[in-house]
TrEMBL record:
The keyword Transcription does not apply. Its main location: other. PROSITE patterns: PROKAR_NTER_METHYL. One of its GO terms (biological process) is establishment of competence for transformation. Signal peptide: none annotated. Keywords: Competence, Membrane, Transmembrane, Transmembrane helix. It comes from Fructilactobacillus florum 8D. It comes from the Bacteria. This is Prepilin-type N-terminal cleavage/methylation domain-containing protein. It holds the Pfam family N_methyl.
Amino acid sequence: MSLKIITLLKNKRKGFTLLESLVVISITSLILLTLLWGTRVFNRQINSEPRFWQSFAVAWNQTLVTAKIQQTPAWVTLAPHQAVCFETYLHQRLIKHEVRVPTGLSVTSWHEIKISKNGTVSPQTITWRSEASRRWILQKIQLGWGCYHNEIKSF
């Protein structure tokens, strides 16, 4: 009896059955889609950092100029895993502008930067951690001028 079952189960043709082919195609396409999706997410994180730094620079310069022109102080607040908040007064109204920090980039500790009414800023260094590019970014704010530069270091 068992010999008859074995001979019935044996396929005399060479190659895959339809079911086996569908399983292999399904598994292969699932793996390829997962890899494709993962690289797109990773590339999006890598590309979002330069856009963040451009937006940060625009908001920073706008806040500096507004503080100088309006002769009012301004503040920049940085907190881990939160948007960067720029606060300034325009015609005696508080104006808040936020720059969203991309996923994978975060400031390591809380900072509040005061921009004086004549646009000067005290010197300080702010440390950012980038998970996407695996590096530290040291944002060094220079004395008096209100400008900064970013120094990049590997983990």
